[in-house]
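During the first year of the project, the team set up a workflow for recording each protein of interest as an amino acid sequence followed immediately by a discrete structure-token representation. This format lets reviewers and collaborators read both layers of information side by side without switching files. As required by the reporting guidelines, we include two representative entries from the current panel. The first entry is reproduced here exactly as it appears in our internal archive.
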Amino acid sequence: MFGIKGYLKDYGDGPLKIIREGRSNLITGFIGLILLLAMGILLCILCREPGGLYFVSPFCLISILIIWNNIKKIKKGKSKRLDKDSIDKAEVFIQDFLSNNIDVKVLLDYLDAALIEYFTIKPIVVESRVLEQKIRQAINNNINIAVFHEWIDTVWFLDIFELKNDTYYKFEVIENYKLEGKIIPIRELKGMI
């Protein structure tokens, strides 16, 4: 879940997480089924009556349903996987967001659980020159300072972006001013270029 200034969006689980959970639950279902069948057979042997199998059969059906649901979950996760083309398109779009004036809400609407998951694992590095370009735009009044801060918040809080040391420090300074309820002075911004 991610939110900026009241814009909250739940992306749900990505395909890798869905597949991982499905496999884990599938293994649990198989182990449960095997143990239940073993317990039923053991009861039959000990009691010398087939009543043991009758006792465990409802639990075996539950295990079979668990197995069936998790097979469907794995298929669902595999169907949500990204292909190379969609990853490339998303990377271009996100790079456009970084360097151009694409609205934050447009970016957040574009992203889905699969893209969030993919770029969280392999984040896009925000280069210092991109931040410097945004700072120049804010100094020259090409973009509104509120739009600049919204862009900073998005890059700072979304896990799909990675900030290197120098860039991280600059973002941190800007965010600290915002947390204090102050607008960062122009001279401070000019010092970051």
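The second entry, processed by the same pipeline in the following quarter, appears below.
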Amino acid sequence: MPVSRRALFAWLGAGAAVALTGCSVSDPRVAEPTGARWSPTPSPSPTQRPEVQLAVQREAELAARAGALLPVAGDRADVVTAARDAHQAHVDLLSDGFGPVDPPVIPTPAPAEDLAGAAADWGEQLTAAAAEHRSQALLVSGRLGLVLASCASFATVLGRRAAALPAAIGTAEPDEFVPISDTDALTLLTGQLHAARYAYHTALGAFQLSDDRRDPLEQRVAALTALRDRLSTALVDRGVAPPPAEPAYDVPRPADQAAAISITRGVEERLLPFVGAAVAGVATGDDLRAVVVDEVTATTARLVATGGALPRWPGLA
């Protein structure tokens, strides 16, 4: 059975709670130094991180660009507004969680005459920002690496669909971050890949799908299989036995083509947080890092292609 994100983080958090049990801190009374020479030791100033400053700048520019498109957005104003708000949420989290940062310098975007005409330039700006986010995500692990990978995925998928916007953009905020080791993350993700392949085969085998629907599903099965095999090999190299596939998973048999596509959409939704956990867990310099960072985008793209909303935080919420 696929594991929910809530269950994932409950499982991960259990060990951390045990480590704190039984600890106590004494409370000795200390006389405060007096006299003209005494002053409190100042706290060290936080160090500004250039990768955070760059990401904040790019996301602020993207928020301004989306805002400038609103007057010509027409009946897609809700999606463009959601895109603007998502970029601003990225700015806020990066600034508040990984600051300090200098206020971004935002040039005033040129007014657009129509949404279709501005789509190409908007897509190029999104794609360029996504490339910068991705390159930085490869160099940073843990929570920041996951946030950067999430921003890269959002911008990549939105950039590809700037001319034909996603059906919707989600508003869910990130779940609480729980650190995870690479072996735990890879083990969990490998288990989910078994379940994902089973669900896709169920969707494919229910009845005859049209070629335009079958081909993307078969391509996705091949990609999921390759990823599962790559992660299984990595686990063996780390001295960990890969989790075996279950004999069967609880997947309903689809009644029609729309239901089959709906099954695959659910697969991608459930897979995303496990891919995100792998991004947080796999160290920089590891050959797998680029694999899992790019898989956040691949999973997000498939989710949107099946009619799902583009998450505000792919892999994080």
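For the second entry, the following points were noted during internal review. The radius of gyration is 23 Å. Residues 50-160 form one domain. Both points are flagged for discussion at the upcoming steering committee meeting.
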